[in-house]
Amino acid sequence: METITPTQEIQYDYERMEQAAKNRIINTDTYNRTMDYLRGPEGWREEETYVLQMRRSPHGYLVACGIEDAVNELVTQPITQEELDEAEQYYAANNVPFFNKDMWQAIIDENDGFLPIEIYGARDGTVVLPGEPLIRATGPGELIAHFEHLFHRPFYDTLVATKGNELTKLLGDPNRFIEVGKRGTPDELTHLRAIKALQVGGDITMTSNDAAGVAFEDVRSVGTIGHRYVQRFPSVEAAFRHAVENLDTVSLLVDLVDSYDGMNIALKLKEEYRETDKNIWVRLDSGDLKAQLRYYLDACNERGYTDPIRDRITVEGFENLEDIAEMEAMLTEEEKKRVIYGGGGIAVSQQTSRSDASTGFKLAEYVTPAGVVEPSRKFSDSPGKESLPGEPTIIVLDGLARYIAQYKEMDQGTDLLELLYANGQIAQPSSIDQARARRKAQMPAIEQMVQEGERAVLSAQTIQKIGALSTKYGIAA
Fold it and tell me: Which end of the chain is less congested by CB atoms within 10 angstroms, N or C?
């Protein structure tokens, strides 16, 4: 037998990666240290405001999700002396320049490790239009900028939640979709974030991931057999028959050899076992899914196999929402009761990159050494990528009129950015039920705006700040 090294004597790269990721002082982009150095030893204390926008959406709107979790990850635990000592040792040992130890020591000594900042953000389920502010963070500028990467990351949860709303809107019932994307995400936590987002955005609660049933009260994990089971038998029919005989409910995966042969075998078994209590379903997974679905439905209709429980059909392997829409268009209302869809990539990995949301976390306001508050803005050669100046927020009047206004500019209306964290104190996070209710209350007005091509109105103060900055840089407002 070949000799291998005992596990306990090996240090894996993964262990080092985990350790590095846990240290919040080390976990930043290099250019943040460089810019901090350029401001001088105490420059980090200068107050600034940064604003996160998601400037694009594949669907014309966004269901915010993950912002509260990102804030919790950032601020729930204080920065520790152990983190600082580890960071100092690393930077010194590797001759890495521009490490501001004094900033982090001040956070630990003066604030017990808690970040001296304020964060306003959109709670889970808040429905916004592309370009509207989603997070506003104020405090020591270099300290906030250090965590820029974390402020960006809710783009993923938000895009998945938005996809969840689109899926449920298309199918009319969240119980007609099963999430099966565990293998399509980079790690377990990301997949659980996706399942939470699908609940927030579309009330979708069925998944193939058992861990989600532990993490979320309303989630139900489902699944029967896959290809590897069928591959172990001398024939497809032998595999199907064994499963039917040993399970009360089974979904037969018909495409191991030929989908039409698999469907015919399933029909044969349904006839044989019709007088029993067996629920014999099929799962379509490859090839021309629309044609296969129509073939199998017609065959079931001819035989009277139309029970919405006993004669269910699951369709997987489609490429996009348009494929689902085409299949839905050919179904009768009665047939829709028997057809459900299972999707992995379409829910958790397609159209979920940062570029799909075009996130920007930009400086919006700063205080000069003389104490003067100055708005700031990033202009852009790419239309739609300009940032918002000042302290922008979203104000909704009477549930309809919508403004990108400045903080406390408008006395009336509802401010969609709520205080989530302030100097060591954190707001109670939203429950999934609260997030769902928020989405359902706000969605009708947003859908109407999307259909009519409308956008939020810039308030008087926002227009004034943009105008002043345009003049400053010699740009036409």
Answer: N
d(C-alpha 296, C-alpha 387), whole Å: 53
Intra-chain end-to-end CA distance of the chain, in Å: 76
Query: H or E segment at 323?
Result: helix 321-329
The Cα 136–Cα 151 span in angstroms is: 10
DSSP state, residue 172: S
Q: How many residues does the chain have?
A: 477
CA of 459: how far to CAs of 141, 181, 402, 404, 462, in Å?
26, 42, 10, 6, 5
Strands 417-422 and 425-426: antiparallel
Instruction: Indicate the pTM of the whole model.
Output: 0.95
**Closest residue by Cα to residue 148 from 27, 17, 38, 22:** 27
**Phi first, then psi: what are they for 315, rounded to 5°?**
-115, 125
Closest by CA position to 409, among listed 465, 362, 455, 370: 465
> Per residue in 397-408, pLDDT tens?
987 789 999 999
Distances (CA, A) of 296 to 290, 301, 456: 10, 8, 48
Closest CA to 166 of 180, 177, 152: 177
